[in-house]
Write a structure and sequence with these properties.
single chain, about 425 residues, alpha/beta, 18 helices, binds fe (ii) ion
Length: about 425
């Protein structure tokens, strides 16, 4: 076997188990092919592709090689001969299912004045490949035996430089790829852990705020789902829709700063008490203000503006129409709709028909008219989601429901 191919095979073997091996080898083979093109070398190329579609990716490159090379032999499976009619100097050789070489990619480049270059994933694979190639080629009348090629390693300075260049390049690619993969894995792990921690903290913080208000995890889950259903009708960014699942939970986080005597009061609030109650919007905004995280920024917007009304009669700023952030206009509808379904000491639970009538009556008053229409267009889905959630949490204590809320991604609640 030739020295250069030995070196390359050893290198290839050592990186066999690494996922970047394929791209390294493809990169090197492209480099070799480019060299043939650049120096117009009358070489022979023997290359195997696992699938014909992989060859098609390289179609243009091989059209050029076809015009320059002494001969190109392409081994592939399920060759579509219609697509390769224009090749003049390339022989396409069909591989069978039981040919071991179809499992891996190999390339052999040979030139009478230069050494053969073998690239493969391992010595074993290359060995098998050479056997299969040799047998198949002999059926095409080509007697090719690369191990018999005469190579004088001291004679050709260009060859030695080339060998040095290829091996150094391959090593460099390996090292850099390895470093990148390690760093990327660490980064992905950190990001994923960070994301999970953030989401869990959001849920627990909202629980702390909602718990005092006697609302349940089920309300939080339902509200978040209605919000998602409506929001995805008006928002195209999948990222924003995903963030909204968590951000919506934060809209009432400011209730944490409202005294129990007001928050938990059974009867109607006095106007003074109601003014204090209203500050849960600005308290929430203060808690969430200035975060670099998109989900908290969205939570800030919601906490501050979810009690604004389309006609400008809401609080804390009396914002009107589209001056109110879209996210807050969406949450306003789903929050009120679900709150109307919950009985309190001072109010009864309304049946679905009444709740729909209330939403309609607040068209372009409390809520943006178009959003009410979209919500009602999806009312069947919303009712089905509610049924599924209630069923999922039937016979569970509030504690169980909260622990499910904390320990599962929102998709667990959203799948209806
Ligand atoms: Fe609120």
């Amino acid at each position: 076997m030739l020295e250069l191919s030995d070196i390359l095979m050893t290198k290839a073997s050592s990186i066999e188990r690494k996922i970047y091996a394929k791209s390294s080898l493809v990169g090197i083979s492209h480099g070799l092919e480019d060299m043939i093109v650049e120096f117009k070398l009358k070489s022979e190329i023997f290359v195997s592709f696992q699938k014909f579609k992989f060859f098609m990716v390289e179609f243009d490159r091989y059209m050029i090689l076809d015009s320059l090379c002494k001969k190109v032999f392409v081994f592939a499976r399920n060759i579509d001969f219609d697509k390769i009619k224009d090749f003049k100097n390339t022989v396409f050789i069909e591989l069978n299912d039981d040919d071991s070489m179809i499992e891996e990619w190999n390339i052999i480049i040979n030139h009478p004045e230069h050494p053969a270059v073998f690239l493969s994933f391992s010595a074993d694979i290359l060995k098998e490949t050479l056997i299969v190639m040799k047998n198949k080629l002999s059926k095409y009348g080509v007697e090719y035996n690369p191990s018999k090629i005469n190579y004088n390693k001291e004679k050709d300075i260009v060859t030695r430089k080339m060998r040095f260049f290829i091996n150094r390049t391959l090593s460099e690619i390996e090292d850099k790829s390895s470093q990148l993969i390690t760093k990327n894995n660490l980064l992905e792990k950190a990001l994923s852990e960070n994301g999970e921690i953030t989401n869990e903290i959001i849920k627990r913080l909202c629980y702390a705020a909602e718990y005092r208000d006697d609302d349940s995890a089920v309300h939080m889950a339902r509200m978040s789902i209605y919000t998602s259903i409506l929001y995805e009708q008006v928002e195209t960014s999948q990222n924003k829709i995903r963030l909204m699942n968590y951000a919506a939970l934060m809209h009432d986080i400011g209730k944490i700063g409202i005294p129990d005597s007001i928050l938990l009061k059974a009867g109607k609030l006095t106007s003074e008490e109601f003014n204090i109650m209203k500050t849960h919007t600005t308290i929430g905004a203060r808690i969430l203000k200035g975060s670099k995280r998109e989900v908290i920024q969205m939570g800030y917007e919601l906490a501050l503006s979810h009690h604004e009304k389309w006609d400008g009669s809401g609080y804390p700023s009396g914002l009107k129409e589209k001056d109110i952030p879209l996210t807050a206009r969406v949450v306003a509808i789903s929050d009120v709709f679900d709150a109307l379904s919950t009985a309190r000491i001072y109010k009864k639970a309304f049946p679905i028909e009444t709740r729909i009538e209330i939403l309609k009556s607040q068209r372009n008053k409390h809520f943006q008219g178009e959003l009410v229409d979209l919500f009602l267009e999806n009312i069947d889905r919303i009712i089905m989601c509610k049924k599924n959630i209630d069923l999922k949490f039937n016979n569970h204590t509030d504690e169980d429901v909260f622990s499910m809320l904390f320990n599962n991604p929102m998709s667990f609640f959203i799948e209806c």
